[in-house]
Amino acid sequence: MTKDFSTFFSNEANLRKASVMAHPAPGTISLSTGLPNPECFPLKGITLNVESPESSFQKSNEIKRNIIDNPDEIISSCQYMDSNGLKYFNEWVKNYIIDNFKPCYQNWDFIIQSGATQSLDALFRMLINPIEDTILCESLTYSCFLETCIPFKINLFSIKMDENGILPDDLNQLLTNWYNNENTKKFKFPKLLYTMPTGHNPTGITLSSERREKLLEICNTHNILIIEDDPYYHLQIDDDNSKHIPSLLKFDTEGRVIRIDSFSKMLMPGLRVSIVTCNKLFRDKLANHNELSIHSASASSQLILQMIFKDWGHDGYLKWLDHLQSIYRRRRNIMLEAFDKYLPHKLVTYNRPIHGMFIWINIKLNEFPKLPNSNYSDSEWATFIEDQIHKIASEKYKVILSKGHWFMHDKSLIQAGFRATYSYSEEDNMIKGAESFGNAINDVYSSLYSN
Ligand SMILES: Cc1ncc(COP(=O)(O)O)c(C=O)c1O
C-alpha cells in the first residue's frame, strides 16, 4: 500500500500547481497553445553513427530517420513535449525499470528529466524548506550533493560507514534518539536519507542486499524518505549481469524510495537525461516543476536514445552493458595492480571495488602522528596530512586525486583519504599517476618524520 506522503512537500511544492498550458488531448482542435508549426522545423532527418553489438562494439553502423518514413519521430523530437517523453523511449524506460528494479508497490511511476544533477535539485525544491529541514547522508558523500545542500541551508547529519558502506544501526540509533540527543534535538526530525548504494561516490563501496533491506525497514519505522542516487548501477564490473544487486525499490512497499537513474555513465553524459522513479504523488509534482523549468528532457537526446535502443534491441543493450563492464574491469585491474606496486602499504590502505569508477585510498593516520609542537586538533591534523599529500602530488609530481575532505559534510571527522578514479585517464598514465602519488605520500612522510 502506498502511503500518503503529501506532508513531505516543501512550501514551494505546495504552492506549485499544474500549468494551464497543458498539452492538447489527442483528437482536440487546439487554437490555444503556442506550439510552432512543424513546417517551420528545418530538421528533416538524422543519421547517427553508433557502435554495433554485432561487431562487439568495434565498428559503427548508421542509424537513420527521415521525415518521409518517420514523420512522428522527427516532428515530435522537434516539438515541445510533455514530461512523458518520446513514446518509444517512454516505453523503453518503463520496461527498463520493471526489468532491473522491480518496484513492488502498485502505483509507482517515473519521469524523464535532464540528468541526475537537475533531478536532485528538483527533488530538493519539492521536499525541502530551506533553513528548516533536515537531511541525512553517508559520512562520505558526493561533493555535488553537499554543494546542492549549501544554498538550501539544509541541516545535514551524516551516518557512519564501514568498509561495507552505510551502517543501518547507526541510522536507527540516530533516529531513535533524535529528541534525546543534545546535538540533534533542536533540529527538525529528518525528512530523508540521501544514499548511493552501488559503487558509492567517493568510496566505490556497494551496499549488500541485507543492509539495503535493513535501511528500508528503518526508514519505514521512522517514516523518512530515501533518495537512491544510483548512476553507477550498471557498472557492476565483477557481477554476472543476470545477478544484479537489487535496487532499494525492490524492498519499498510504501513508495518512500525516490530512485534516480542517469544515462551519463551508462551511455553519454552530454545527453543530459535521467529517470526519477517514485510514487505517483511525487511524480506529478515533479511534472508540474518540469513544466515551468526544463519543460522536458531534451527531445533530441531522447530521440538519440530511442534510435540507439531500437537499433540494438534488448540483447544488444545487454551486450553493451557487458562491453562497458569489461572496459571498466580492465581499467580497475590496471589501477589496482599499479597501487599494489607503487603505493606505500605501510602508510595507506585501499579497497578493491566491484562496482563503479572509484577506489578509496585511506591514509593510515596512526602512521602520521601529530608532531610534538603541533597545535592542531586530531581532525585538523588529518586535514593537514591530506592537504600536504595533495599539494606535493599536484605541484611536484603533477598528479591529482580528489581530497577526502571534499566529500565530508562533517569536517571534524578524524579521517584522511583520497578518491582515485580509473574511468578517464590513459592506461599508462594511471600507472605513472600511481607511482607519482606513492612518491608524494612517501615525501610527506619523510619530510615530517625523518629527523
Ligand atoms: C552520485 C552521483 N550522482 C549524480 C551524478 C551526476 O549525474 P548526471 O550527469 O546525470 O547529472 C554523479 C556524477 O558524477 C554522481 O557521481
From TrEMBL:
Domain Aminotransferase class I/classII large: 79-379
GO MF assignments: 2-aminoadipate transaminase activity; aromatic-amino-acid transaminase activity; pyridoxal phosphate binding
UniProt keyword terms in alphabetical order: Aminotransferase, Pyridoxal phosphate, Transferase
Segments traversing the membrane: none
Cofactor(s) listed: pyridoxal 5'-phosphate
GO biological process, one term: tyrosine biosynthetic process
Annotated Pfam families: Aminotran_1_2 (PF00155)
PANTHER family: AMINOTRANSFERASE, AROMATIC_AMINOADIPATE AMINOTRANSFERASE 1
Family as reported in the entry's similarity comment: Belongs to the class-I pyridoxal-phosphate-dependent aminotransferase family.
Protein name: Aminotransferase class I/classII large domain-containing protein
Lineage per the UniProt record: Eukaryota, Fungi, Dikarya, Ascomycota, Saccharomycotina
